[in-house]
Amino acid sequence: MTELLFLVASAKTATVLEPLASACGRNGTSWCCFITGEGVKQLKNTELLKLLPNAERVIACEHSWHEFFGSLECPVELGSQTTNSEMMIETKRVISL
Fold this sequence. Notes:
Distance between the termini: 21 Å
Strand order of the largest sheet: 4-3-2-1-5
Shape: globular
Radius of gyration: 12 Å
Order of helices and strands: EHEHEHEHE
Number of strands: 5
CATH topology: Hypothetical Protein Ychn, Chain: A
CATH class: Alpha Beta
Structural class: alpha/beta
Helix content: 25-40%
């Protein structure tokens, strides 16, 4: 079971998400991330993209990605709100950003 799920729905949380993801790596804490709504805009942040390979799983909401970026290729796996629900079941704690 994954320790933390970061549910990212805002485009303005990189200053919080990046240090949290880094801290997870330093502490050996397992984490995953579901990115939805305007949060998908953070997938253009090169510093954040460097941290995402350390996650057990990173999913972007397919609908949100296409809303903001059209047919551009997404740098992470695309999924749905059903995927988000599945990730929540498999995680001990959720941090909503």
